[in-house]
Amino acid sequence: MFMAGKLANASGVALPEVMFWRQAVALPILLGYLGATGGLSRLKTRHIGKHAARAGLGMTGMFSNFAAVILLPLAESTTLNFAAPLFAVIIASLVMRDHVGPWRWTAVTFGFAGILVITQPGHAHIPLLGAIAGLVSAFLNATISFQIRDLGKTEEPVTVVFYFALFGTALMTLFLPFFITPHTSWQWFLLVMVGVTGTLGQLFMTSALRLGQVASVIIMDYSQIIWATLYGWLIWHYLPASSTWIGMPLVVMAGLVIAWREHVLAKRYAVTPADND
Q1: Where are the domains of the chain?
Q2: What is the DSSP string of 248-273?
């Protein structure tokens, strides 16, 4: 999705329009699927306010995410987004009031150290605005994961994704008249690709968050670095800088430690609901 969005923007499609089609393409896909399976009744909800709040935060996160992808090389923007589990731990501790012990705090420390190595504040390798967009995106993605998990207690994944697409399309329609332009067939292909891949990816992620721990599910995103590096090399003839190769393992290992610790604590809590580290 992000590869197609980056190509679409580079070809002259404005970011707000990329975001519009990312959401608008999802609606007929979801309605077609529900109509064919006789499941339109699954869209009934008593939590329309929660869906609207999730969409507002989600569209802000999407803007930051696409902005980071546009401003930075694909591998670097993807790696910065891996800070989401680090922020998830901080949110769990400070907002959710969960007990977080030395294992996860140490992982958070090493993870942010890796981010500092990658971004090298003050150097031109990573534009400051792009680094900020990437970290804001990671923070919002972590926050949204808790929202999705809360909605998943009562809503089906397809319902969560549909209302995100519905509210997101309505929101971006307000901006569309200021940014829409005529497109070539190649640009239309990229915009449809953004919508289709984004919808499928979100359906799978929402289903995963409904079934697993937030930090454990987010860790699976790390496979993105393989595709981000491959796309960067094949399409933009770019390989990550040495600082990225040094900092990336720190960020990935931090996420792995957090996921492992979440798994251990979930199993321990299932046996006895006692405070753990």
Answers
A1: 2-271
A2: HHHHHHHHHHHHHHHHHHHHHHHH--
